[in-house]
Amino acid sequence: MCSLKSRKHIKKTGRPFNCISIGEINRLTKYFYKMLLANHTNVLYEAGCDEAGRGCLAGPVYAAAVVFPKGYTNQRINDSKKLNHQQREELCAIIEEEAISFSVQKCSHTEIDKINILNASFKAMHKALNKLSVKPNHIIVDGNRFKPYKKIGYSCIIKGDGKYISIAAASILAKVYRDRYMLKMDKRFPGYAWSTNKGYPTLAHRKAIKELGVSLIHRQSFQLLKPEQLGLFP
Predict the structure, then answer these.
(1) Structural domains of the chain sorted by starting position, each given as residue range(s) with its CATH number in brackets
(2) 3-state SS string for the chain
(3) pLDDT in tens, the chain (234 residues)
């Protein structure tokens, strides 16, 4: 028996809920709940991909791939940059529990130095896609560039981590896993304040490089000390 809500929907549209298109789901989700969009395409398995740590001076670049059930929504999931540490940690557990499949992989600082950060980011994404338990029918990636993966169709979406839930989830996983790694490295290589800057090029980080030298996980291909900033240090 149809619920009153279902009967009203069928009377209005002539279709039951399971016949609503992805476009309609996205439109209703965005309008009523202000949530990120569920899907970019109408395929069964759509994988969202994003990376973390691309602009850092030290450590690996991480990437994640996430496949949610078709039409999945969650009002709390958002671009990782808009969330605090506790929110990311809580959502990380939810994503791992509710995703059909997810994977988080990395490329080391030595790989970054060898093939450059852009290619290392793509490689980390490919590694994450390789480890999914389901084969995606389509891939959506945050940003404007991607290296084709196994002849699977893909879409590059600028600021996609603020538009589609699977990309946002990937951004959260990649950020959480990388932050955890840098916290461990902060204990192994103290003095660079990685517990707070996570390897990003803050003034304090560059000052520590000048005073302590380069650690074993700094990216040698990056400009660790900018000439114009040297005068800022005592």
Answers:
(1) 23-184 (3.30.420.10), 188-232 (no CATH)
(2) CCCHHHHHHHHHHCCCHHHCCHHHHHHHHHHHHCCCECCCCCCCCEEEEEEECCCCCECCEEEEEEECCCCCCCCCCCCHHHCCHHHHHHHHHHHHHHCCEEEEEEECHHHHHHHCHHHHHHHHHHHHHHCCCCCCCEEEEECCCCCCECCECEEEECCHHHCEHHHHHHHHHHHHHHHHHHHHHHHHCCCCCHHHHCCCCCHHHHHHHHHHCCCCCECCCCCCCCHHHHHHCC
(3) 444 444 454 445 444 445 566 666 666 655 545 689 999 999 999 999 999 999 999 999 999 999 999 999 999 999 999 999 999 999 999 999 999 999 999 999 999 999 999 999 999 999 999 999 999 999 999 999 999 999 999 999 999 999 999 999 999 999 999 999 999 999 999 999 999 999 999 999 999 999 999 999 999 999 999 765 555 444
